[in-house]
Design goal:
alpha/beta; Oxidized Rhodanese, domain 1; 2 domains; 5-stranded parallel sheet; Rhodanese-like_dom_sf; signal; GlpE_sulfurtransferase
Length: 249
Amino acid sequence: MKLRNLVFVVMLLCCFAGSALAAQPQAQEYSVITTEELKNMLDAGKINPLIFDARTPEEYEEVHIKGAISLPISKLERDPALLQGDLARPLVFYCNGVKCGKSKKAAKLAAGLGYQHVLVYSEGMPVWEEKGLPIYAGPNYEAKIETKRLDPATLKTLLESGAGTFQLVDVRDKNEYDEGHIPGAINIPAAAFAAGSKVLDKEKKIIVYCNSGGRSYNAYRKLMKLGYGDINQALLADWKAAGFPASKL
């Protein structure tokens, strides 16, 4: 066992033991864990949590953390008895990232039922998948989607309007972004897009672009899974072909 995994397990067990022994009438309902902490917990094998996917059955069937159990929050709210079991066994809930509230609702419900060690994996399915960790992929996992494309002239008009109703995101690597990007764009590289998406506002139009479409297509898919509504795609190659300027750092 790697030393860091052993240290993490010991710390987590101590935390569990402490929370069980301490008399705290205002005790926290649940604890939030990171991707690395959940991975270490599973790798070490000393703690055997139940992992619950609080998303819809359709999302679960498309892709889920390997070994997770489907328990949609809507179903759990109707029938809390579905969680009957060992109150001392750790429970981990997850959904579609830090802006998804389903896992937190499920965790609060579990804590209210008397479960002693309730954890929320807040980074959720998009980040777990993005980091290449073990997943179950269903038959529709690679299904092609149609993106909503913005042509260069429409994008330029939107940028010149000065409206605060959208966010433009360059999903290329930072060195590419620094060499030249569409004015006003922020940079969230595609390789860590789900993890970096917390800065994006779900109430705004999100426009993702790369040079030729591959990476922005993947970012578009991740935004769909993260629950963003108004998603758009553009191409830097088209922007340049139209003769529009690029900003450099």
